[in-house]
Amino acid sequence: MKSPSLSLKINLGLLLLGLIMVFSGLLIQIKYHIGNHDGIDIIKSVWGLSHSEWLIIHKISVIIFSFFLVYHINLHWRWFKAVVTKNLIAKNRHVLTLSILFLLVALTGFLPWLIKLTGGDESILNTFIEIHDKIALILLVYLALHISSRIRWFITTFDKLKK
Ligand code: HEM
Ligand code: HEM
To answer: Where does the chain cross the membrane (predicted)?
Structure first.
């Protein structure tokens, strides 16, 4: 059973955490990665925070975002099943592409973290991160499309709950 109030809280949570996740990811990419072929300058501070502090913000927002997303996807599980079983894939290409992109970005983000934690090969780790920050840019476009086409949902749900 979908509760509009809970859906609104989850979707607003996704919106807020998505903004922090994208902002911290882009900041690390632009300020620490681009043009730094000799490695990351860990001492450099951007707006008072070091690389590792921005990375912590990115990781925390990504983890909470992922929890909210599990709920979001669970709510729409019947939608996923219907799209696949009733062959509505062509009509819903956008959301399906968004789902696959998210999966790839999550995989290429969490795997290097795991490799780092288990003391694995640094070159594999860096390759994953290189792939991660490139696919993340495409994900960003699909996320923006997904949200902008659902602005009306936020407005009508707010109105419904006010009454
Ligand atoms: C959409 C915009 C995103 C951008 C621009 C972005 C960018 C980045 C960048 C540049 C790094 C490298 C940090 C470094 O070690 O210097 C990074 C790390 C990471 N990202 Fe993202 N990311 C995004 C979304 C995501 C998402 C959706 C997830 C997972 C659900 C994710 C999970 C991670 C994780 C776990 C790390 C840490 C990897 C490690 O410890 O080596 N990111 N991200
Ligand atoms: C910032 C992140 C996101 C926000 C704010 C957001 C918001 C929304 C909203 C407002 C709706 C319509 C209302 C509803 O039924 O809940 C919706 C539907 C949906 N979302 Fe998201 N979403 C986000 C990320 C994602 C991601 C990453 C996926 C896939 C992995 C996804 C999959 C879906 C699906 C399958 C639907 C239902 C079908 C549809 O409306 O086309 N969402 N989302």
So the answer is: 12-34, 54-74, 95-115, 135-155
Q: Which residues contact 132 (CB under 8 A, 6 or more apart)?
A: 105, 108, 109, 112
64 lines ligand 1 (CB under 6 A): no
Please give the Cα distance from 150 to 152 (Å, whole number): 5
Give the residue with greater pLDDT, 2 vs 92. Answer: 92
For residue 34, what pLDDT is reported?
A: 86
Residues near 66 by beta carbon (within 8 Å), at least 6 away in sequence: 106
- Whether residue 1 is predicted with pLDDT greater than 70 in this model: the reply is no
Ligand 2 atom closest to Cα of 18? 1
Can you give the residue range of the structural domain that contains 154?
4-162
The total number of structural domains in the chain stands at: 1
Statement: residue 90 has pLDDT above 70 = yes
